[in-house]
Design a protein that fits this description.
Aspartate Aminotransferase, domain 1, Aspartate Aminotransferase, domain 2, four-stranded antiparallel sheet, about 15% strand
Length: about 375
């Protein structure tokens, strides 16, 4: 039995060309970019090139890219940086990643007024509700570009216009979108945008933060003044090179790969629909990522499905977790108002560059066997 990896939204494998680009910077080219000799200058040149590659993918300027350790760091930098006095107003969507929602909770506990923008039943952030929650005193609005569970692509540009109308900045967590769909920071109206390396075939432990020219934040890390004083700490050259190469790879074929992965998704949806089970595709009818299917099966528990997936050598995620007899449903499904019988049986399937139509057919066949074994 060959393993089937359908959890690319959790992490992607490092692409062979990315690994090859990184290898010299673990070995011969080990210099510190801050050193004024040949070893350091070679490392600095590599970081500069990676900055150009990363900027090009999202249609930004190289000087607007700050390399970070991960998307969580980027998100925390933006949220905490906007409220150094722990006052003012923050608006976030109800379906943000925990790396946005947890800082929002911490800010609320320290005195910041926080509003959560609801979503429609298909998982779209509701622009009408956003208009009600973006206030004259709002400093920052944070809405992700693509939801990590449902894959729903949010109306960021429309919401950014509302934010800018009251003088607020717009932050976009694009961790799940960059490399999967075309991302244009100007078209989105983003003042800040988060990139995660390990979501687009670069290694874990590296990310980037786009800061539009003219915008500024207090540095999240203090020290030697690297990254133009915006993020101190000796640069992780090898991982930064990997992120740059991954961005260059995506730049070459993002539209072609998007179309190919949409065909795989259509095949999986058709196959699961033919199983004769009561199922619900979360986010159906909304624009979605090409590689994500968040599907709930009535009469099943996600934990039971995932246990059988381990046996069948399928890698995927869940929208609900079991704690003894109790089942906790994800905050995303709760925000969407999904009926509990579908929410409890929700799994997330996400595929990528190495996934084929044959993989999709084999996935459906194995899930069919699983559902027969554990079905009510």
């Amino acid at each position: 039995m060959r393993p089937l990896y359908f959890d690319h939204n959790a992490t992607t494998p490092v692409a062979p060309r990315v690994l090859a680009a990184m290898r010299p910077y673990f070995e011969a080219h080990f210099g510190n970019p801050g050193s004024a000799h040949i070893w350091g200058l070679r490392a600095k040149k590599a970081v500069d090139e990676a900055r150009e590659q990363t900027a090009a993918l999202i249609k930004a300027r190289p000087e607007e890219i700050v390399f970070t350790g991960c998307a969580t760091e980027s998100n925390n930098t933006v949220l905490f940086g906007h409220f150094p006095d722990r006052a003012g107003h923050l608006a976030v969507s109800a379906v943000e990643h925990p790396s946005v929602l947890a800082p929002a909770r911490a800010l609320a506990a320290s005195g910041v007024e926080v509003s959560h923008i609801p979503v429609t039943p298909n998982g779209l952030v509701d622009p009408a509700e956003a208009a009600r929650r973006i206030l004259p005193q709002t400093r920052l609005v944070s809405v992700m570009l693509a939801q990590n569970e449902t894959g729903v692509i949010q109306p960021v540009a429309e919401i950014a216009e509302m934010a800018h109308a009251v003088g607020a900045a717009m932050h976009v967590d694009a961790s799940q979108a960059v490399g999967k769909i075309v991302v244009d920071v100007a078209g989105l109206g983003a003042d800040f945008l988060t990139v995660a390396g390990h979501k687009l075939y670069a290694p874990k432990g590296v990310g980037a933060l786009f800061m539009r020219r003219g915008m500024d934040l207090p540095p999240y890390l203090l020290g030697g003044g690297q990254e133009g004083g915006r993020r101190s700490g000796t640069e992780n050259v090898a991982l930064i090179v990997g992120l740059g190469e991954a961005c260059a790879m995506a730049m070459e074929d993002v539209a072609v790969e998007e179309a190919r992965q949409r065909k795989i998704g259509a095949a999986i949806e058709a196959g699961l629909s033919g199983l004769g089970l009561a199922m619900r595709i979360h986010g159906q009818g909304a624009p979605r990522l090409p590689n994500t299917l968040f599907v709930g099966f009535s009469g099943f528990r996600a934990a039971d499905i995932l246990s059988e997936c381990v046996i069948e050598e399928i890698g995927c995620g869940a929208g609900a977790a079991c704690h003894g007899a109790d089942t906790t449903v994800s905050h995303v499904l709760t925000a969407m108002g999904v009926p509990r019988e579908f929410a409890e049986g929700t799994i997330r399937l996400s595929w990528g560059r190495s996934t084929t139509l044959d993989d999709a057919a084999e996935l459906v066949a194995r899930l069919k066997n699983i559902m027969r074994r554990i079905g009510p």
